[in-house]
């Protein structure tokens, strides 16, 4: 109530990521939006599961970012995760994943980007990729964290 963000916030759901980032590529190249005016991208992709790399730590998510992303924003996310008591972030050794989701199209255009995801799992994109694999508590905590980050004075 009464809260107004300092910047416009746009929520976008892209399609065709698995066949070459077609949706995000089209957006940054043909949507008519001046991409140079985008302050940052926060991409949430596959955040509800527990990927192979994070087995045994169901509360963890990877928090990866482009090299031009303000480190103080990354710290806001980490601090918020710690305060949640439910989720935590890892950013070790998975920079290769920055090329594997829609933030890549924005990074290629020089837009600072954050990528949050739970890693990869053998059942992803198969008939066994069902709701029973989702951690709804973790997803709810992530939404609460994002609301907190938006309410904070984002760098």
Write structural notes for this entry.
By secondary structure, the protein is α/β, with parallel strands linked by helices. Strands 1-4-2-3 form a four-stranded mixed β-sheet. The mean pLDDT is 86.
- Please tell me the overall pLDDT: 86
* Rough outline: globular
Tell me how many strands there are.
4
Strand content: 5-15%
What is the chain-wise order of helices and strands?
HEEHEHEH
Low-pLDDT parts are none
- Report the C-alpha radius of gyration, rounded: 16 Å
Largest sheet: 4 strands, mixed
Question: How would you describe this structure in keywords?
Answer:
155 residues, 4 helices, four-stranded mixed beta sheet, 4 strands, alpha/beta, globular
Topology:
Layout lengths: L21 H9 L10 E4 L15 E6 L5 H14 L3 E3 L12 H5 L5 E5 L18 H16 L4
Parallel strand pairs: 1-4, 2-3
Antiparallel strand pairs: 2-4
Helix pairs in contact: 2-4
